[in-house]
């Protein structure tokens, strides 16, 4: 997710990159603890809650160089990555089955 949020644009200072890293950590912790339950990808309400959590946390945490249009594109890309990569119940493309 860090690559999604920092690749190409915006151009960030070192402290701003640290803010993005913190935002990604907070987002993952929140999603894993509260939102990515079993079958979350099958339920419309669960998908909407995950999407809203992504948007809210990134909106609160990302530094100012993210314009509204860029924020919209990046947050949608982050949500899509989560949808594609995190299956729920602690399972993801990053864990061994």
Describe the structure.
The protein is mainly alpha-helical. Helices cover 65% and strands 5% of the residues. It is built from 4 helices and 2 strands, in the order ααααββ. It has helices spanning 2-6, 14-35, 44-61, 68-85, and strands at 86-88, 91-92. Strands 1-2 form a two-stranded antiparallel sheet. A hairpin with a 2-residue loop joins β1 (86-88) and β2 (91-92). α2 (14-35) runs antiparallel to α3 (44-61) and α3 (44-61) crosses α4 (68-85). The model has no long low-confidence stretch (mean pLDDT 94).
**Could you name the ranges where pLDDT drops below 50 across 5 or more consecutive residues?**
none
Question: Biggest sheet, strands in spatial order?
Answer: 1-2
Number of spatially distinct domains: 1
Q: How would you state the average pLDDT, rounded?
A: 94
Order of helices and strands: HHHHEE
Terminus-to-terminus distance:
22 Å
Main β-sheet description = 2 strands, antiparallel
Query: Compute the gyration radius: what is it?
Result: 13 Å
- Class derived from helix and strand content: mainly alpha
- Percent in strands: 5-15%
Individual helix count: 4
* Shape category: globular
Short description:
This protein is mostly helical and 97 residues long. Helices cover 65% and strands 5% of the residues. The protein has helices at 2-6, 14-35, 44-61, 68-85, and strands spanning 86-88, 91-92.
Layout of helices and strands, plus pairs?
Layout (H helix, E strand, L loop, with lengths): L1 H5 L7 H22 L8 H18 L6 H18 E3 L2 E2 L5
Helix pairs in contact: 2-3, 3-4
């Amino acid at each position: 997710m860090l690559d999604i949020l920092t690749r190409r644009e915006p151009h960030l200072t070192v402290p701003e990159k640290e803010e993005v890293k913190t935002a990604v950590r907070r987002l993952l912790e929140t999603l894993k603890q509260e939102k990515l339950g079993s079958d979350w990808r099958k339920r419309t309400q669960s998908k909407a809650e995950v999407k809203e959590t992504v948007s809210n946390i990134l909106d609160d945490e990302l530094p100012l160089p993210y314009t509204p249009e860029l924020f919209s594109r990046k947050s949608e890309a982050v949500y899509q990555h989560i949808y594609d990569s995190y299956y729920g119940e602690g399972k993801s493309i990053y864990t061994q089955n």
